[in-house]
Structure formats: C-alpha cells, structure tokens
Design a protein that fits this description.
This protein is α+β, with helices and mostly antiparallel strands. The chain has a domain of about 60 residues. Helices cover about 40% and strands about 20% of the residues. The protein contains four helices and four strands. It has a four-stranded mixed β-sheet with strand order 2-1-3-4, sandwiched between helices. α1 packs parallel to α3. The longest helix has 12 residues. The termini are close together. About 25% of the residues are buried. GO terms for molecular function: glutathione disulfide oxidoreductase activity. Belongs to the glutaredoxin family. Keywords: Cytoplasm, Disulfide bond, Electron transport, Redox-active center, Transport.
Length: about 90
Amino acid sequence: MAETPAVVIYTSGFCPYCMWARRMLSDKGVAFEEIRVDREPSQRAVMEQRSGRTSVPQIFIGEFHVGGYDDMAALDRAGRLDPMLGLA
C-alpha cells in the first residue's frame, strides 16, 4: 500500500459540508490535520491564499487542492479519491 500523503482540511464550526468531509475521510481511515478558521482567524488568510477560495471546507491532499466537499465527493464517485489518498 502506498504511503498516505498529508491531508489538510480547513473548516469552521456549524458547517455541514465540513462535517461530511471529516466523516468521509474518517470512514476511509485517513488521518488529517484540521485547521479551524473560526478558531484561528489568521489561518483563513492562509486558506484563501492556498486555495483561492473563501468558503470552507477547503481540502488538500499533499500539495493538491481538492476543493470543497462536493469536489472531494465527485472524485470519490469517479474512483479517483482513493488512489490520491494512497488507498488503492
């Protein structure tokens, strides 16, 4: 099995898409670093610079910007997410 790249997810509280993204990664057994932009406001600027987006969640696998939950779910449906996570 390939080594799993670092997964970083920028989130905020009370965000259903953030919850779904965390659940999907957890269900796959993938460890991830969660950065709560509502608790660490300075990280919002970092997220926006890295992603070019202002909404949460923003998900990165290694240096690859996946996008938000809908983007990650689309990759999963297409069978492309597991290989990116080193699971296939």
